[in-house]
Amino acid sequence: MVENRPILNLISHLVLLFGIAIVALPIWITFVAATHDAVRMAQAPIPMLPGSYFWQNFKETLFGSGLSGTQTTAVWRMLLNSLTMALMISFGKIAISLISAFAIVYFKFPFRMGFFWMIFLTLMLPVEVRILPTFEVVAKLGMLNSYWGLSIPLIASATATFMFRQVFLTIPDEMLESARIDGAGPLRFFWDILIPLSRTNIAALFVILFIYGWNQYLWPLLITTDADMTTIVMSIKQMLQAAEQSPQWNIIMMTALLAMIPPVFVVITMQKLFVKGLTETDK
Amino acid sequence: MLKRVHFPTSALPYFLVAPQVLITLIFFIWPASQAIYQSFLIEDAFGLSSEFVWFENFSILFDDEKYLSTFGRTIFFSIAVAFLSMSVALILAGFADRIVRGATAYRTLLIWPYAVAPVLAGALWVFMFNPTLGIFPFLLDMVGIDWNHYLNGGQAMTLVVIAAAWKQIAYNFLFYLAAMQSIPRSFIEAAAIDGAGPIRRFWDLVLPLISPTTFFLLVINAVYAFFDTFGIIHVVTQGGPANATTILVYKVYVDGFVGLDLGGSAAQSVILMIMVIAMTVIQFRYIERKVEY
């Protein structure tokens, strides 16, 4: 605080509260919509204050058949699919990036830089620009409609590899020297020294990658045709399409709420790690 | 790059890089090369045979008015999203930087939309703007505006811009706030002693000092608007009405998966690839991420 200006402070708080209100408005309306019954949600204008149907909608959405006539998979199954996919993507990315960064930093071998640039290339080839041929590869490998197909093609990661490379480079050489004097081989060194030293980075990266994995949309949309493999994020689109015939906004908005709670919960509870991960991976 | 002290050469490093390199080859490099190859082919109407045509797919694209207008629309969309979301984030960060008490609470309440999937952000906004039920058409009706984004292309574009910008505010806010907080307090104090008020200090001191962050965010937001907004477009407008919200990524998807125009879709993929490469090079080559004074 440079100078004391009570009025400016007041304005600052007001602007920030206004900003929060704008940012939070969509979620408030979603929450309110999820607490009314279908009849009320079909009348304009929609309510702005919560109703009393929250638990009923919750149970109907999570365990019921969802929207009448359209839904075939229960929402709990979709949540499970999303969770599996998000965890496979984040653990997979962390695991393969850790070991490749270890190889690139701690070993001298032919084509080392070639491999490094190959990994760098993945940064320039997001799914969106190679939709069709990637789909064909996955189809040929028989990975459509499987958890492997949902996660494996997404787990190559240049950013994660770079981040671990950066972390390893800051670890003093004396660590390796003393470990070798004590008779530790490469894998022992990796497991007992490098992994513990990069624990916070792994956790920060996990937070970011979990959100990334959970929120995947285009990829699951392409490779899942089986209703049992639908992820929760994908299902919103199908529900909205169905809503054009029979609007059940209470159920749709409850599903939307369930779909965003896990990643939002992760961001809010692990805020420090989230901020660290966000600022370190985008380098 | 390499540690001064390292392990002796053995087969081990090859095993360590193998998983990452295999996935890169199978799911990234091979499909990308396929896209490049297919972009030089034209299939006949029945998909039975294909002919190698060099750059004909590209010249068809660049003669196609629809494609060129999609290009222009995508650029407009990115600029609008970046401008809207960055200016809101800048204002909020400017005020948050002043606050001593409750700053963390404000930050928590402002950053969570980052975790909302683009397609969900789209779903929330499309619900609020639903022409018959939504709260905003109801309010707009009072001031005489008839809202229907299913029919009005301009309104559809406005809606996708708002939804896309809303989700990105959190990210921009975090980076702006971090940049402002890294400005040494002595600079601000010196300016205050010289008689500069808060607004003057913001314009003449803070804004120039955080310009590297602004440039960085500009690139990040452009990449976001180009590639990560597929879900928003898909759920809010499906590119309509009458292609008013079809952006490049959405067109690749529609032409390839719905229209089954393999050569044309592949040629569009290749153009997009060139754009990502350009943006990545800008991001790595010209952006000094560390804000140092």
Largest sheet of chain A: none
Instruction: Look at the helices and sheets of chain A and give the structural class.
Output: mainly alpha
Cα Rg of chain B: 24 Å
Radius of gyration of chain A: 24 Å
State the distance separating the first and last CA atoms of chain B: 26 Å
- Mean pLDDT value of chain B: 84
The total number of structural domains of chain B is 1
Largest sheet of chain B: 2 strands, antiparallel
The total of helices of chain A stands at 14
General shape of chain A? globular
Helix content of chain B: over 70%
Assembly state: heterodimer
Under the CATH scheme, the architecture of chain B is: Orthogonal Bundle
Number of contiguous helices of chain B = 13
Describe the structure.
The complex is a heterodimer of chains A (283) and B (293). Chain A is mainly α and 283 residues long. Chain A has two domains: 6-75 and 224-281, no CATH class; 95-204, MetI-like fold (Orthogonal Bundle). Chain A is built from 14 helices and no strands. Chain A has helices spanning 6-33, 54-63, 75-106, 112-121, 131-140, 147-151, 158-169, 173-181, 186-197, 199-214, 218-223, 232-243, 249-269, 271-281. In chain A, helix 1 crosses helix 13 and helix 3 crosses helix 10. Chain A starts with 5 loop residues before the first helix and ends with a helix. With 293 residues, chain B is an all-alpha fold. Chain B has a two-stranded antiparallel sheet. The two termini of chain B are 26 Å apart. The mean pLDDT of chain B is 84. Chains A and B meet through helix 1, helix 3, helix 4, helix 5 and helix 7 of A and helix 1, helix 3, helix 4, helix 5 and helix 7 of B.
